[in-house]
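Appendix B. Chain record.
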Amino acid sequence: DFIAVVVNAAGDAFAVGFIGSGGIEHQYVARISGATGAVMWEATDVPGVTTENFGADIVLDAAGNANRLG
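Structure tokens predicted for this chain:
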């Protein structure tokens, strides 16, 4: 599930949220191309994490880099 999405000047979307695994929710962050809709990169928790962890928001800094909050 996605919690927040932000779009950069190039039209690429950055999404943060969570995925379920073994009854525990883990963070999920992805960059989606605005031109093609393809996932450019994605990241989740490190394997073996046993506590719930997910982002509450995502923002872009002045350079256009994504920062997960929460």
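Further analysis of this model is presented in Appendix C.
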